[in-house]
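[#protein-structures] MJ: dropping Transcriptional regulator MutR here for a structure pass
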Amino acid sequence: MTKLDSFHLGELYRELRVARGLKMKDVVSDKLSQAQLSKFENGQTMLSADKLLTAISAIHMSFAEFEHAYYQYEDSSFFKQAKLISKYHSNKNIEGLEKLLIIHDNNSETYDVYDKLNKLVIRCAIHDLNPEYIISDDDKDFITTYLYSIEEWTEYELYIFGNTLQVLSDSDLIFLSKSFIERDSLYLSIPNNNFRTQLVVLNIIFVLLERKKDYCVHYFMKHLESILTYQDMFVKTVLIFLKKVLNYREGKGTHLIDLKKYIHDVEELGHEDVAEFLKDNIVNLL
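AK: finished. structure tokens for Transcriptional regulator MutR:
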């Protein structure tokens, strides 16, 4: 399914507004007039960035949700490629990554900084699986020069750093990692980036341990621990528990002792708060 073109942006907005049972008068404000909104929805004009954000907020959607609808509830090409890289890497599928590299070269219309960085992410994934696949010093310098040049990292820089840090020199890795940690409050405030931030810090720790840089590891471990909450594993842990409860109620081989053991195991793993939550709720579920 192809992305909607700009002309239909207003039409999409109208569909989303109507679907939420909102009339134009419910959306307009001193920042967005009814005339401006009407022309936008009819495809006659585009809204400026600030007015578009106002309009999206008025129908109780986030910009990310609106963007997802704009792409007809599919990931953008960038995130599709990112997911493929992750899939091939986790499956140790070097051939898949090499094919992805060829596809990227064939579909690339420009040779700019971002094109080269996106290509290097694929190449770094191959290198991680096959160390004989060389990432040149020039390529490493290209990555670090770019990352050092961007004062305020966005989701894109987070993605580039997280997927290329394994090829950086010790000094660049440590410096960029500490700089990243110092400003990660920006990413932690955004749910999707919050999870990515945790993964990046985890990757930093993995690489530093592999390189025997133990003197740095404690700093990053302590920081990662400070930004994690019980909610990060909460949903998965509780879901497993609820499945066990359902099996118990349906007589499918799970016994009360199994439920209590699960809670005990969760507590033993250090998730005392989650275990306490399960204890508080088990009586109401049985």
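MJ: nice. The first helix runs from residue 9 to 19.
AK: one more thing. The radius of gyration is 24 Å.
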